[in-house]
Amino acid sequence: MFQPSITQHQLLNTVKLGIKSLLLHKLRSGLTMLGMIFGVCSVIAMLAIGEGASYEAQERIKRLGSTNIIINSVKPPEAQDNNSGSQSFGIEYGLTYDDAARLQFTIPNVATVLPMRIIRENVTFGRNQEPSQVIGTLPSYPSMRGMELVAGRFLSMIDQKHQRNVCVLTLGLAQRLFPYQSPLESTVRVQDVYYQVVGIIRETGTAEQRPQMGEMEGEPLDNNIYIPLSTAKSRFGETLIRRNAGSFSAETVELHQIIVKMSSTQAVVNAERQINSLLKRFHNKIDFELIVPLQLLREAEATKRMFNIVLGSIAAISLLVGGIGIMNIMLATVTERTREIGVRRALGAKKKDIVTQFLIETVVLSIGGGLIGVFLGVLVPLLVSASTDMVTIITPWSVGLAFGISGLTGIAFGIYPASQAAELDPIEALRHE
Q1: What is the CA radius of gyration of the chain?
Q2: Which phi and psi (to 5°) does residue 231 adopt?
Q3: Mean pLDDT across the stretch 214-227?
């Protein structure tokens, strides 16, 4: 049978002695551990909150589609300057159906091109009326946007071909218009035209997907009504007229947005330059903008890394302060226990025994504080998520990193006090009062 060696017995006795010494001064030991507790807790909690914020940002970008390139029509600066006046005028700008065709057949590795018209109108059912975006689009819209069909169906090619007056509502808009009944097979009114509701879809869009966001500020994202693109063209035309007091403005825009889906993420980078060059060739003014979700995702990932470094550095300062606190207390303890050290040396204890005893005390303080800090560090993000809508993500590496640093801090800041204790002269130590 295995028998513990003398060295193991000595180590066990030294550990017991160190823990006993700490328990004799419970309040001081507890206060000493506070720095380590708050340091470990802050590392885990701050990284969890930062990770959650980064995750939400990346998820919003991913919903745009990593292989998609989004092109929006933008009113050129000179037209916006004219708009500040009160006279009547008409302008023509933005993307065209010819642009969509060129992108489909000119740019290499294009999988699908999705053109859209977006009109700001009220949608009405009975006495219920809601401001909405009427989006004329094609049947491929849900698959390109990764949207979930809740009920019914989406638009079909037959709807597109025959310019049918059918529509699909987002879930939020459907619930506001039809609070007490199913909207399927019912009709809603936009201007003076009635549209039959054939489906309900769950909106997962973001602000970046909304070309007219400036006009929809403060309103929910899920207030879209989808109709066939051909229907939108025939019912609303291409010229939007807006009347104000004493003046009116007319804007001719064929398409408000085009989404180009590439065959792979590798093709996106080259396609961005090619699309930009192609559109500039046929547009005399800068009346479009490109949004590349893949680039946004990479920028978000880089920002996440920098954010984690900053948060980790701030939290590491707390651990450093905690380590300095431990070293300060242990140096005071050496002075306080000088006579005890002298007695132990006189009874045959070696320098390494004294070093081991004081190191064990500092490691117990740091590891004990680290364990409590880990518990609080896991608890705080859970409380934040439960009390707010904020997402927090606790990663195993952040817990391991914080706890590991707390143990290393105890050893690093305990070596000097332990060596100071071991270097005391036994005779002088016994004379110490």
Answers
A1: 34
A2: -65, -40
A3: 66
Structure confidence at residue 89 as a pLDDT band (50, 70, 90) = low
pLDDT at 396: 85
Number of H helices, E strands in the chain: 14, 13
273, amino acid identity: R
- Please tell me the pTM assigned to this model: 0.60
Which pLDDT tens digit goes with each residue over 107-158?
A: 888 888 999 998 888 999 988 898 888 999 999 888 887 788 888 999 999 9
Mean pLDDT of 155-162: 93
Q: How far apart are CA 405 and CA 408, in angstroms?
A: 5
Helix (H, G, I), strand (E, B) or coil at 141: helix
**Mapping DSSP to helix (H, G, I), strand (E, B) and coil, where does residue 330 land?**
helix
DSSP helix, strand, coil percent of the chain (3-state; round to 5): 55, 20, 25
Tokens 């001081």 locate to 28
Q: Are 369 and 36 in contact (CB under 8 A)?
A: yes
CA-to-CA distance for 414 and 329, rounded, in angstroms?
A: 10
Q: Cα torsion for 334, 336, 341, 344, to the nearest 10°?
A: -140
Q: Are 374 and 319 in contact (CB under 8 A)?
A: no
Contact status, residue 53 vs residue 288, Cβ threshold 8 Å: no
Name residue, tokens 């590349």: 292
For residue 80, which amino acid is it? Q
Find out whether 160 and 130 touch, Cβ atoms under 8 Å: no
Q: Yes or no: say if 275 and 290 are a contact pair by the CB < 8 Å rule.
A: yes
Q: Which amino acid is at 12?
A: L
Report whether 147 contacts 201 (CB < 8 A): yes
Strand partners, 228: 137
- Return the beta strands (E) in 255-391 as ranges: 257-262, 288-291
DSSP 60-128: HHHHH-TTEEEEEE---HHHHHHHTSSS-EEEE-SB-HHHHHHHHHHSTTEEEEEEEEEEEEEEEETTE
By the 10 Å C-beta count (0-12 exposed, 13-18 middle, 19+ buried), 256 is classed as: buried
- 45 burial (CB, 10 Å; 0-12 / 13-18 / 19+) is buried
Paired with 110 in beta bridges are 262
Percent of residues, the chain, with pLDDT higher than 90: 14
